[in-house]
Amino acid sequence: MQPGVCPNSFKQLRACLVCGLIKTTQQFVENGCENCEKYVHLSGDRERVLDCTTPRYQGVILLNDSNHSWVGKYLFLEGKYRGVYAIKASGILPPEVLGDLEARGVTPHCLNAS
C-alpha cells in the first residue's frame, strides 16, 4: 500500500488540477504532486504550483485504499496515493500542460473553467 499524503495545515489548501489531491501550497512546492509529478513538475517551482493547482474546489474525500473504494473508482482515483482529494476542482491548466497530458492520454480531474 502506498504511503498517505495529507495536508499539514488547513491554511492555503489547493487541489491539483490533474488528480484533485489536496495539500498546502508549501507541500506542493516542497514535494510536488505524488500522483502527477511526472506530468506537471511542481516540485520546487512555486509559480508552476499556482498554475497547476487551485484553491477553488468543492467537497473532499479521504481516500485510504484507491483500489477498493467505490468512491475512488467513481472519481477515477484508482491507483492514486492515499490522501485527501477534491470531489470537483475548478481552474484552467496552462495550454502546454494540457497538451502534454493529452499526448500521454491523461485526463485532468479539473473542470476547465474559471
From TrEMBL:
Pfam families: Spt4
Predominant cellular place of this UniProt entry's protein: nucleus
InterPro entries linked to this entry: RPABC4/Spt4, Spt4, Spt4/RpoE2_Znf, Spt4_sf
Domain Spt4/RpoE2 zinc finger intervals: 13-90
Gene3D superfamilies documented for this protein: 3.30.40.210
Cellular compartment(s): Nucleus
Keywords for this protein: Nucleus, Transcription
Family the entry assigns: Belongs to the SPT4 family.
Entries under PANTHER family matching the protein: SUPPRESSOR OF TY 4, TRANSCRIPTION ELONGATION FACTOR SPT4
Protein's UniProt name: Spt4/RpoE2 zinc finger domain-containing protein
